[in-house]
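re: that complex we talked abt at group meeting.

here r the seqs, copy pasted straight from the sheet so there may be weird spacing, ignore it
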Amino acid sequence: MKQSGTILKYTLLILLAILMSSPLFTTILGSVRTTGEFLSNPLGLPTNGILWENYTDILLSPTFWNALRNSLIITITSTVLTVILSSMIAFIFARVPFRGDQLLFNLLTIGLLFPLIVAILPVFIQLRQLGLINSYWGVILPLVTFSLPSSVVILRGFFTSIPRELEDAAYIDGATTIGFFRHILVPMARPSIAAVGTLSAIASWNDYFLALLVLTDSAKWPLPLGIMQFQGQYGADWARVMAYVTILMIPAILFYLLAERYIITGLTGGELKG
Amino acid sequence: MSPGPFRITVSNHPMEVARQRRDFSKALTIALFLLPGFILLFLFLLLPVGQSAYFSFYRWNGLGPLEAFIGFENYQRVLSDKIFQGAVSHSLFIVFLSLLLQLPLAMGLALTLVRGNLRGNRIFRTIFFVPYVFSEVITAFIWMYVYHPRGGLVNSVLGSVIPGYEIQAWLAERDTVMWALFFVLTWKYFGFHMLLYMAGLQNVSKDVEDAARIDGANESQLLRYITLPLMGATIRLTVFLSVLGSLQQFIVVWILTEGGPVNSSELIVTYMFKYGIQRLNLGFGSAIAVILFVMTLIFSLGYQRTVMVQDYE
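got the structure back, here u go
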């Protein structure tokens, strides 16, 4: 009875795992064949050996490396800013009570209700008024802004849980508020800060829409937009599009495996062990 | 009385001076730490959202000055537009199907993985969760390929399994497009809910479950009367996130169908993008944004006041 239940569970899990991963396998398969092979024999293996050309074409084009550079500029700047600004805000809300703090905190949490995509039209108008169209800052600053609310909420929870005695001891030893923040709290909170940084890095690395609206000059496009460039250039050349998708997909999987602990901590508030 | 910088020079009692200096430096620290972030929040979140309420009363293409005040006309046009009504019903379709299918699937898998004592449950967790970290663009292109009418995986597999199967353009047919999209969204998002359930399950004490078993509860009673109620807070949270996420769905659908064919997969946000931003009807678009904000706000406040209120202590 117990035995057959386990077998049934495994069968279902394996079937579902196949269903979940098959789109990824066809993508990879499609990236090493020609578009013609795909259309005539969808599930077949490559007939003329593995076709690396789709990859080499992309990897040898300056467009790709330029897009990678743009992606790195946007991702690194917005992640660093998000981490610094959200730990500063979280520190005040967790540790330094003042009159009106609850009101300000509520104002911040309004942001949790409106992800960037929902506020995109007003944000777009605002970016135009500030003259930030076609500037990296026009992408970076809204990305940072819209990561702040959730990052502050995660970090505040952690900062609050650090014992009061530690803070008192630091002050008795002559530390200033800023000193306590920099030399004691931040080093202790490293795992949560890493979680916030990881989530913010994923969000900015994946951003597509803001960049599409703001960066009018295609030389400034990050990787996700590069796919449009390829698509336009080659029409419906699925082989190349799939190679491009695979090139973007593999780092995402590797990054997930490396940062799994932090991603899971960030998403579940530290409750699920990696 | 609040201490101001001028009082420091006026007062001369040493204790008073020290206290004021401390207060002043505390206020300075607070300002220094909060200002940079709050300036951003004000510039890119609070102000734009507030301004869109104002723009929504104008006919405005975003270029000229704001002078054609038309009152509630934009709102009347949005609300009476058949396409917008369709968009709302498609968004609700995603909301309800997610609650009815996606969340139970996620729960079932979380229970199986956490309570099943199966080997390799980390591998399964990774496979089920990994689409969540892919960007929406990657997701959309993968599925455009999978649904491809001529060579796509779906048609090839169905064609080889079902005799006499006729090729379907899943994303181009009015009857199938919403289901096809829902399938993609489930593929991408259920792993996230599964992860939250797995986290929630770890907080349900095994001792309580064992005690119920000793008292003669069978597995389905255990689930219904012990495990699920103890996971109430997590379930309420995932329902909340799922509804908001579904209402705010956009990029995957935009890349796959642009709301088509003939508006039959239009969602609230694709409608806003198409008729507000693309056609530069920024006043009209602002009205759509405001309607979406209000829907979100009403749902969030209502849900938090009535359903989630038990989770705050």
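couple things i noticed - The beta strands of chain B are 58-59, 68-69. The radius of gyration of chain B is 27 Å.
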